[in-house]
Specification:
Shape: globular
């Protein structure tokens, strides 16, 4: 770039920015000839072009500076977008959020059960405009190292929310981990607890299917379900974690020793898969939310074989990691598991006051 001055007095000087050198016309760049000072008698510079260039520079610089906040900002949620302007946003480290929002500890936690539809439950509840949810499983209460970091650390992993909205978190390992009910109660004794359950035999097979898929992806060897579920003596292998998780009666007892029964909502996971709206409407009441969720918010995806969220401008389904086809299990092994779980299931039915009708 060079700055040239036309001959004559300073009064009649004209400054021209020449980009790309001062060679002949064929070697000049498209930017050659942009005028910044105009003198009488010279060719007028285009004010429109100059203004457009300035606007372009401002836009590019602004986008580069704000890109991290834009990518990590709060989602523009349904009704909020129509009522809140960009001026209502405030900046925070690495995040943008609505003015008047803050990170709040969860008022409700989905504590389990693994492979019973907890991820779908979280995503479906987020359809309600009064619900905000942590994006991942935080594992705060079942991990001593994380728990020792304190509630301020936990709060930083919660989403921003408005007063009047409820914050949700989901970590299925909470349900089976000793000491977690007491830790959650210590945080807030009014916390509401959601537990999804399904036929424990089917749940165990689903658990195995996920672990098997993960091992296959890492080129690791996989044992047959029958080998893991039944020990060398032909009995159900209770040391196999996938089997122990299905002893709902034993796990729930620890929760009911800490929380009042009215603060615990047991959800039929099998029915939730078939008809999510029925269960979600009951959860709206449990959480003290105004009725909002309806059948229009969902559609059945024939390819995936389960319900997905339907929004005004988009559709959202769970990843392909969900809804995997289960392997064929020997009928005698399936029956042995059903016979094993049956007495525990009966106790569980009495415990929650509902017969789920599992075989």
């Amino acid at each position: 770039m060079k700055l040239s001055t036309a001959p004559g007095t300073a009064k009649n000087a004209i400054a021209v920015v020449s980009v790309g050198g001062g060679g002949d016309a064929s070697s000049r760049t498209p930017w050659h000839g942009w005028c910044f000072v105009k003198t009488p008698g010279t060719a007028a510079c285009s004010k429109t072009r100059l203004a457009a260039l300035c606007m372009l520079v401002v836009f590019v610089v602004g986008f580069v500076m704000l890109r991290p906040q834009i990518l990590h900002g709060i989602a523009w949620r349904g009704s909020c977008v129509d009522r809140v302007s960009v001026a209502d946003y405030v900046d925070a480290p690495n995040r943008m959020h609505f003015r008047g929002t803050s990170r709040r500890l969860p008022g409700c936690i989905i504590v389990g059960v693994r492979k019973c539809g907890t991820r779908a439950m979280l995503n479906f509840l987020k359809v309600h405009p009064k619900v905000q949810a942590a994006s991942g499983e935080v594992h705060f209460f079942d991990n001593d190292d994380k728990y020792n970091l304190g509630l301020d650390w936990y709060r930083k992993h919660m989403p921003f929310s408005f007063p009047g909205q409820i914050t949700l978190e989901k970590s299925p390992a909470y349900f089976i981990t000793d000491g977690v009910p007491e830790r959650i109660y210590s945080m807030n004794n009014q916390t509401k607890i959601i537990v999804l359950v399904r036929d424990p035999t089917t749940r165990a097979i689903s658990d195995y299917t996920q672990i098997m898929a993960n091992k296959f992806a890492r080129n690791k060897s996989v044992k047959l379900f029958e080998t893991l579920a039944i020990n060398e003596y032909g009995e159900v292998n209770t040391s196999y974690k996938a089997i122990r998780i299905g002893l709902y009666y034993r796990h729930l007892e620890r929760w009911m020793n800490v929380f009042p029964r009215e603060q615990i909502r047991i959800v039929d996971g099998d029915n939730f898969i078939r008809d999510p709206v029925e269960e979600l409407k009951q959860l709206e009441q449990f959480l003290g939310l105004e009725p909002y969720i309806s059948a229009k918010n969902f559609y059945f995806n024939e390819t995936k074989g389960f319900n997905c969220v339907k929004q005004e401008s988009s559709e959202k389904c769970l990843s392909d990691a969900k809804g995997r086809k289960h392997p064929d299990i020997e009928p005698k092994v399936r029956k042995k598991l059903q016979d094993f779980y049956r007495p525990f299931n009966v106790k569980f039915y009495e415990q929650v006051g509902h017969d789920f009708g599992w075989p």
